[in-house]
Every structure is written in C-alpha cells, then in structure tokens.
Amino acid sequence: MKKIIITQSNYIPWKGYFDGMALVDELVIYDDMQYTKRDWRNRNLIKTAQGLKWLSIPVEVKGKYFQKINETRISDKYWIEDHLNQLKQNYKQANCYNSVFPWIEELYLNCKFDLLTEVNHYFLEEINKYLNIDVKILRSESFALAEDRTERLLNICIERGATDYYTGLAAKAYLDEEMFDNSGVKVHYFDYSGYPFYVQLHGDFEHGVSILDLLLNMGKASPQFMKN
Question: Are 187 and 180 in contact (CB under 8 A)?
C-alpha cells in the first residue's frame, strides 16, 4: 500500500495541510499550474490584536499573466525581515514563543531562495522535521503531465506506484473517480472537521491560520492538536 497527495504548494500553510502529509507516504507539489494572485501560494494568515492579517511574500506578476507557480519569482528580498517582525510583534506573548521563535527565526534567515515554490518547499520540509512527519516530497515538474486534469493526477499516482490518492472535498467537482478505480487507485477525501481547540492569542479561536500559530502557542505539544 502506498498513499499519495498531489497538491499545490502553500506558504506556511494551516495545520490541515500538514495533517494530510502525516497521513501519506508521498506529497507531490503540483506547481506546474498557473500562478493565481490573492491565493494561498504566497501568503497565509496569522492572528493579531487587530484581527486576522496576511503575511504575503511579494512576487513578480506584472505582465506575467500565464506564468506557472514554479516560475514565479520573489520580487523583494526584505520580506523575510518583515515577516519575522510581524511574528515577533504578534506572538511575543504566546506560551511557547521563547522556545519556538528562535527556531522560526533561523528558518527564515536561512531561506535564501529566488523562486516561490522553493521557499514553500523549504518551509514544508523544515516544519515536517519539527512535527516528526516523515513524508517524501516530490515536484510535479519531474513528471510527464497529461492534458486532462484527472489523467494528469492519475498518471502521477501510477508512476509512483500509489494505491491510495488523498485530496480535498473540492476535487469532487472535477475528479473522475471511475478512472482512478479502473486503474486500481482508491480516492479518499479529507475530513477537516473535529479539530481540537488550543490556547490561542487575540480573540475568537481560528482554525484556518498558519501552522506557525499552533507552533508558537503549543510548541512540541502541537501534534496533540492535529488529527493524524
């Protein structure tokens, strides 16, 4: 049995993204797709005293209407300093700030990449180490991709010898499950309900914020507030 996820990369994604990786053997970063503005590719949410706030990586988009995610370049090298300052300002009262923030700061200061997908891949790998998630991460650019969306995903599963394919509920709108079944690959949809609450700063509880919120508040106890 071999379980696989194929999904676009996100910047410091929410805990559900990491729960998905904890459930499978391999993640294929699906970054041969067109880059979309105002999406999760280059930004994520943190909590502040003024409400939810985006941490966004500035990227080159002017005139690049059809660029792929894996072609998208970072446009301003000072984003690292800005994001660290915002995390410091908004999480300095978090329970595990003193033990976790130095590690986060080191991650950012060692993040010396020009391409967005490389930044996202780097953070996924390093946060997985912190959470003890053992998953192999590959990139879709190393595969020959078909034109049809379902066939494209299925071919990656077949090439990797996957028996089980995991995806979000939104995929039900386009995925041809019969094609997967006929090829001996079982489709599973994630259930993101029922997450436990944890001690969180700044008002009402929010599940859909960056994983950094969980890490700064709960530290090494973070896996207890995940599902897989």
Answer: yes
**71 CB-contact burial (10 Å; exposed 0-12 / middle 13-18 / buried 19+):** middle
CA within 13 Å, CB half, 138: 16
- Beta strands 136-139 and 164-167 are unpaired
- Residue 40: pLDDT band by 50, 70, 90 thresholds? very high
Asked if 70 and 30 touch (Cβ cutoff 8 Å), the reply is: no
CA 196, CA 17: separation in Å to the nearest integer?
Answer: 16
Alpha-helix residue ranges (DSSP H) falling in the chain:
15-23, 79-91, 97-109, 116-131, 149-159, 177-182, 211-218
| Whole-angstrom distance, CA of residue 44 vs CA of residue 208 | 9
For the stretch 185-221, pLDDT in tens is 999 999 999 999 999 999 999 999 999 999 999 999 9
Could you report the per-residue pLDDT of 60-115, keeping only the tens digit for each?
999 888 999 999 999 998 999 999 999 999 999 999 999 999 999 999 999 999 99
pTM given for the model: 0.95
Phi then psi for 134, rounded to 5 degrees?
Answer: -105, 95
Q: Nearest 5°: phi and psi at 163?
A: -105, -20
Task: Give CA–CA dist 170/132, Å, rounded.
Answer: 28
Q: Convert 195-219 to b/e letters by CB count within 10 Å (16 or more is b).
A: beebebbbeeeebebbbbbbbbbbb
